[in-house]
Amino acid sequence: MNIVYAAEKPSIAKILSEYMQRRVKAEDINVAENPDETGSFYIGFDLELYVMSPDGTITSD
């Protein structure tokens, strides 16, 4: 399980890289809080939208 302590783009980019199995740079993503779930984030990358849950799980939206 990945645990993200803060909404730091480099940390989120690292987890997204693992999920996508390719390198994702922090400057290439957009991160926004998900108002539907505390500690959850929307991640925009390459015309795709992903959701990261508080436990660090990333899924395609």
Percent of residues in beta strands?
A: 25-35%
The quaternary structure here is single chain
Uncertain regions: pLDDT < 50 for 5+ in a row? none
Q: Helical element count?
A: 1
Strand adjacency order, main sheet: 1-2-3-4
Q: Roughly how much helix do the residues carry, as a percent range?
A: 10-25%
Element-level helix/strand string = HEEEE
Overall pLDDT = 88
Structural class: alpha+beta
Q: What is the count of β-strands?
A: 4
Shape: globular
Largest sheet composition: 4 strands, antiparallel
Radius of gyration: 10 Å
N- to C-terminal separation? 20 Å
Q: How would you characterize this protein structure?
A:
This protein has one helix spanning about 10-20, and strands spanning about 30-35, 40-45, 50, 60. Helices cover about 20% and strands about 30% of the residues. Strands 1-2-3-4 form a four-stranded antiparallel beta sheet, with helices on one face. Strand 1 (about 30-35) and strand 2 form a beta hairpin. The chain has one helix and four strands; from the N terminus they run αββββ. The longest helix has 12 residues, at about 10-20. By secondary structure, it is α+β, with helices and mostly antiparallel strands.
